[in-house]
């Protein structure tokens, strides 16, 4: 018996000694939508830096005023150490004999994405950046959405959707309240200084909107009809519509694992001077044979709105759908 116990103990000890331990990684840090750009001062001030700023700090779509897609925080490689290496989003750019493009996951911290771009000349480096920018942007966006959802999950509002016969769940902060509801439609709202963040959820018949990039007129028609019947303005007879002066952006997308049409643009109030950004997803709900509409819009006069609409997007992308009873 003693021999058996000793043999088992030896096996456990052997397994423990041979098990590869994962290196400790600190928690990543940084403001949402901020990239630490590791690049020499000379390159940052050259056409390479201009290319980086033109791509990664280009105006975010669907906002009433210009705000950058990402905030860029530049530092030369020699000072990229310690706390700086724990940045959640890192972009390393430099001149090197070999051309390189790769995306490292959790190299210095977790969660972290680090894009590495090198080329032998400035001209080749610019082409390398431009050719891989879209992949990097999409990767960075997904990391930031997950990070925002992680922060939201610390204090969640409970029991959404099922109370309104929508059979959905959204990971929404507890500070959001049910502002208004009617048959088949609900409006959640979070108050902010001098404004509010707003989320609408409702359903449409399965064939109401065509699922392609040519469906924008249909989407605008649906939005404006909901605005007229459910989202009034301050003055009598006024209501929210899609801004008429600028055409919204429209894309194919995926939300909660379901095909969707994504629309971004600006809303305004008919017969009033109010406006702001909106984000609309029309989702093909194959579980319940319907089109589910999730929309967020921001009212924040005289304030930056990029991070507000980003919060709304993180909530909408947390969607889970269940079978209606």
Fourth-level CATH superfamily of the largest domain: Mog1/PsbP, alpha/beta/alpha sandwich
Number of strands: 15
Number of helices: 6
Percentage of residues in strands: 25-35%
Question: Stretches where pLDDT falls below 50 for ≥5 residues?
Answer: 1-19
Helical amount: 25-40%
The CATH class designation of the largest domain is: Alpha Beta
- CATH architecture descriptor text of the largest domain: 3-Layer(aba) Sandwich
- Radius of gyration over all CA atoms, rounded: 24 Å
Give, in order, the helices and strands.
Answer: HEHHEEEEHEEEEHEEEEEHE
Number of domains as seen in the coordinates? 2
CATH domain fold name of the largest domain: Protein Transport Mog1p, Chain A
Mean pLDDT, to the nearest integer, reads: 91
Could you give the distance between the termini? 59 Å
Structural class by sheet pairing and helices: alpha+beta
